[in-house]
């Protein structure tokens, strides 16, 4: 199967993570550093953790971090990177599909997800599923690519999977028990294939007040 034929399924990501090269930089995502850097470390869940850069950063800051992803190959890589970084004992791993995620009574002081982009706007359903995993007083941080002309080369399905932070606010309002602290698009410059690109991180940060 080619990458783009079934971009939204675990087989496609397993194939990507089976290539010999690292896919991501291994650096933590900037909105995680900006927001979790202000919080007292506790327990964290990173859904769609990929190769584990954010989980390793959290562990280094003193969090006990669970990396979750639907790709077994991604999780294998993340666990290997955590061992290389010397933080394996602060990390654990959970193979789970965000589209059917159920916290099952587990709660975390921070629940975070970066660049997950499930199909057709279903990020709202993912947020609905993640909310019960946030401990009282804990935080939910959801970051993705806001749609923009920068991504014009993506196919329709991938474009429709991008979202704005404001799309997520009504879900938390409906659920209740959350105070929205940040709902904004944060611009930044990235380099892809040697070219500088302007993108915007759609960023939602909320605190579980109940
Ligand atoms: C673009 S990568 C981002 C990885 C990491 N969060 C980062 O920012 O570097 C998206 C990740 O989400 C995972 N993913 C995509 N859809 C998923 C789903 N429905 N459930 C769980 N993981 C998913 C992929 O396997 C991949 O590791």
From TrEMBL:
Gene Ontology MF, one: transferase activity
Cited PANTHER family: PUTATIVE (AFU_ORTHOLOGUE AFUA_2G14390)-RELATED, TRANS-ACONITATE 2-METHYLTRANSFERASE-RELATED
Source organism of the structure: freshwater metagenome
Positions of the Methyltransferase domain: 45-138
Presence of keyword NAD: no
InterPro entries: Methyltransf_25 (IPR041698), SAM-dependent_MTases_sf (IPR029063)
Name of the protein in question: Unannotated protein
Keyword vocabulary terms for this entry: Transferase
Gene3D superfamilies: Vaccinia Virus protein VP39
């Amino acid at each position: 199967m080619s990458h783009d034929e079934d971009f939204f399924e675990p087989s496609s990501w397993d194939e990507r993570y089976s290539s010999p090269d690292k896919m991501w930089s291994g650096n933590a995502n900037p909105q995680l550093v900006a927001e979790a850097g202000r919080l007292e470390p506790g327990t964290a869940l990173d859904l769609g953790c990929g190769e584990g850069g954010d989980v390793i950063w959290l562990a280094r800051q003193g969090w006990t971090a669970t990396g979750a992803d639907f790709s077994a190959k991604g999780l294998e890589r993340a666990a290997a990177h955590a061992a290389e970084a010397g933080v394996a004992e602060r990390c654990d791993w959970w193979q789970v599909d965000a589209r059917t995620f159920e916290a099952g009574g587990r709660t975390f002081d921070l629940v975070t997800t970066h660049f997950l982009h499930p199909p057709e706007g279903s990020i709202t359903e993912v947020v609905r599923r993640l909310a019960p995993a946030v401990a009282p007083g804990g935080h939910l941080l959801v970051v993705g690519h806001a749609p923009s002309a920068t991504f014009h080369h993506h196919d329709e399905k991938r474009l429709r999977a991008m979202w704005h932070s404001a799309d997520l606010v009504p879900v938390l309002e409906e659920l209740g028990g959350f105070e929205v602290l940040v709902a904004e698009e944060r611009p930044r410059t990235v380099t892809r294939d040697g070219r500088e690109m302007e993108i915007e991180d759609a960023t939602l940060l909320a605190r579980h007040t109940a």
